[in-house]
Amino acid sequence: MSTRRTTTGNRRKGGVSGRRHHLLEVNVRTASMKRQRRGRATSIVWKVSLVVILAALLAIGFRVASQKFFFKNPEYNLKHLVIHLNGVMSREELTALTGFDEGKNIFDLDLVQANQKLAAIPEVRSVSIERTLPDTIEVGLESREPVFLFAAPGDAASGESFIPGKSFLCDKDGVMMRPSRLDDRYLHLPVLRGVDLGDALPGKKLVSQSLVTALMLRQVLSELPEETFRISSIDVTKPYAAVVTDASDAKFTFGTLGDADLPSQIGRLQKLLDHCQETGRRIQTANLMVSRNTPVTFVLTPEHQADKIAPVTPPRKTPKHN
């Protein structure tokens, strides 16, 4: 009996001692793992710090070198500004807008911002800016080619002229322009009447069916020889017809509804122009909307004055005498 009790007590003591030894081993391994993690973290921090310090030193060195050899080097000052402005603006206006002043370091000039400013001008179709080391910048502007001068609302049909900053122009795509400077070519543009300019904005395409009709007519009529037909003005006030006046002040009426056969109307116009070249006559008006027996009136020239029929004068009544 006493021997069993002793054995049981030894087993209990051995079990408690084993658990304590196991816990001690676990604590030792945990502390070791913590030390290892702290060591790895410290190593990573040192490596990252070293990389940051080296990067900062390289950046400072690069900045100092770039300042010395590029930004502070007088060899890279702008000496040659090569421009191809195509009449859009003057050299002074370009430098004022972009800051491309001679003597400035070409690396200090913001070419992207200058490109954006120039491209925002309604008269400019495209921009190219090139920097050529060590001291040259080349600027090229492709201008929009205006095709119509819009008549101002309420203006008389005659005497229409370009007013800088007020008159609207448009190119072949219907993009609106309002130039602030005079160009000789603006004075010879065909005048367009009958288009609502309420929504017109410089640099934006005007959405207008009347303008679409006028641009379509211009495109077709521009294929005729300029010596025989040159547009002076187009009036699209009426939704179903457009009146085109040529350089000789002759007026031609074209049908513009959806089912209008424009090629046939151009064919009738071509026949009339051929007839005038053969006979030397001048057209005053022609209604090309009519497919058969096109109504045409001709200018009465001095050599044809005798052909005009004189009105018959009725005989005078003699008084009766009683």
Q: Would you write up a description of this structure?
A:
With 322 residues, the chain is of the alpha/beta class. It folds into 2 domains: 75-143, Ubiquitin-like (UB roll) (Roll), CATH 3.10.20.310; 146-307, Cell division protein FtsQ/DivIB (Rossmann fold). Helices cover 37% and strands 18% of the residues. The protein is built from 5 helices and 12 strands. A 9-stranded mixed β-sheet has the order 6-5-4-7-8-9-10-11-12, covered by helices on one side. It has a 3-stranded mixed β-sheet with strand order 1-3-2, covered by helices on one side.
- What is the name of the CATH topology of the largest domain? Rossmann fold
Q: Structural class of the secondary elements?
A: alpha/beta
CATH class of the largest domain: Alpha Beta
Low-confidence stretches: 1-8, 306-315
Biggest sheet, spatial arrangement of strands: 6-5-4-7-8-9-10-11-12
Based on the structure given, which CATH architecture of the largest domain is correct?
3-Layer(aba) Sandwich
Distance between the termini: 193 Å
CATH superfamily membership of the largest domain: Cell division protein FtsQ/DivIB
The proportion of residues forming helix, as a percent range, comes to: 25-40%
Q: How many separate helices? A: 5
Radius of gyration: 44 Å
Strand content: 15-25%
